[in-house]
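retry 2 of 3: previous attempt timed out while embedding pyridoxal-5'-phosphate. Reduced batch size to 1 and resubmitted. Inputs unchanged:
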Amino acid sequence: MKKHNFSAGPSILDESVIKDAASAVLNYAGTGLSLLEVSHRGKEFTATIEEARNLMKELLDVPEGYEVIFLGGGASLQFYQAPLNLLKTKAAYVDSGTWASKAAKEAKLVGEVVTFSSKADNYVWYPKPWEKNEVPDDVDYLHITTNNTVYGTELRYDPDVKTRLVGDMSSDIFTREVDVAKYDLIYGGAQKNIAPAGVTFVIVRRDALGHVDRPLPTMLDYRTHIEKDSMFNTPPVFPIYVALQTMKWYKELGGVKALEKMNLEKARILYDAIDSSRLFRGTVNPEDRSIMNVCFVMKDEYKELEKDFFDLATSRGISSIKGHRSVGGFRASLYNALPKTSVEVLIEAMKDFERKH
Ligand SMILES: *Cc1c(COP(=O)(O)O)cnc(C)c1O
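retry 2 succeeded.
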């Protein structure tokens, strides 16, 4: 039986998507060849990547003037590539957690960076400098990491600022409707909500490019990949194929609106269980809680029970709920493909454990 996979990344994919991918690995689109051994320039894969690009635009309601490209290098390469292409003199960064601070670090190699951080409080709240008008007017963009995968906070709206936005949406893409028009760039690794590791999606406003003076290496210039339809070099064909299957499944389910509703419900029942528990408590400010990565610990007086709860959870087929080493305790990641029944199994385990102790 399949386990209840709460992994933070790489993460659960829908069973139907995995089966389809497995069959394409054996015989891709009736070619009699494996998806893993065909030319990326053949008509079958050209159709796959084109459909993936169009479906991403459709599901995320990407306006005219924006391009969708598929790259390698992970979100981590975007930490550098984004400022290289967009940062003229100065940028602002919201330092909301581990990934956000890595992004700011790379941007500092390229230009001046102003940060707004909650690091001193171990990232238990999400910094919102726009609420106090603190984002300088003269920055090229404000970079936000919309979901903090490690600490479990999230910004679930697109802030109103005078400047352009750049968003790392690796761990919450396709979980809410995004106003893409506010962004110059949205990027993310696919391995949390879309596909296996290996492909990075980038949504970029065409007119935002071409304004920096520095010479750009060919591979790191977004325009290279736009002009070649993400085929300048060999694209990661397998994860792109799987991304397409996931997005088709999203469309069948009713698109982003339907996914958001399901996710809110999953998060609500789990946070309710945590908040009403005698043994467990959440680790971040309730108003900034992530609906994707739910972090919780045993209350101080019960700390020594954490190991026992792990054992109980494991015995019930619950996989990967160990918290990140910087937070400890537990982290249950509730990505799109995780069914509500898995959350219910976890809650049941928490309740049974509480009855025993
Ligand atoms: C996982 C993650 C990353 C890192 O992605 P890679 O593809 O491994 O480079 C970056 N940002 C966020 C928000 C993430 O969750």
